[in-house]
Amino acid sequence: MDEPQRNLEGTGSPKDPNTLEALDARLRARRARQEGGTERALHRPAGMPASAWGLAWRLAVEMVAAMVFGLGAGWLLDDWFGTAPTFVLILALLGIATGIWNVIRLTGRYQALQDAAEVPRSGARKERE
Q1: Is it the case that residue 39 has pLDDT exceeding 70?
Q2: Which structural domain range is residue 59 located in?
Q3: Is the pTM of this model over 0.90?
Q4: What's the rounded Cα separation, in Å, for the pair 26 and 9?
Q5: What's the domain count of the chain?
Q6: How many whole angstroms separate alpha carbon 16 and alpha carbon 26?
Q7: In the predicted model, is pLDDT for residue 113 greater than 90?
Q8: Going by C-beta distance under 8 Å and a sequence separation of 6 or more, which residues neighbour residue 20?
Q9: Residue 116 predicted with pLDDT over 90
Q10: pLDDT bucket at 76, cuts 50 / 70 / 90
Q11: Which of 24, 56, 67, 83 ranks highest by number of CB atoms within 10 Å?
Q12: Cα distances (Å, whole numbers) of residue 63 to 51, 86, 97, 100
């Protein structure tokens, strides 16, 4: 029997890196590392941006998008119905309120995920008493 076939069957020496036992040990070590996560992954709740800048940009985009949508929809309705600034004012205020609500909802969700993961915001782990 040739050498590669012997190693695939698991009859080689256990220290040989080509044996099935060595492959199994490497796979178990990789799974353990993935389940534990990296240090950076522990600080980022799932579904949230990787950095504070990412979160800030997302909040800004949510605010601006809600306001622009409200203004645009109000302008189109005013143009269609022939009313002056009625729909622009109403939907602009509604867009601003929606943007603020989205920011509050997103920051509350981010805070809840951080608290659930027990990730400190200052960079140092919280000491339990």
Answers
A1: no
A2: 48-117
A3: no
A4: 17
A5: 2
A6: 12
A7: no
A8: 8, 9, 10
A9: no
A10: very high
A11: 67
A12: 19, 22, 9, 7
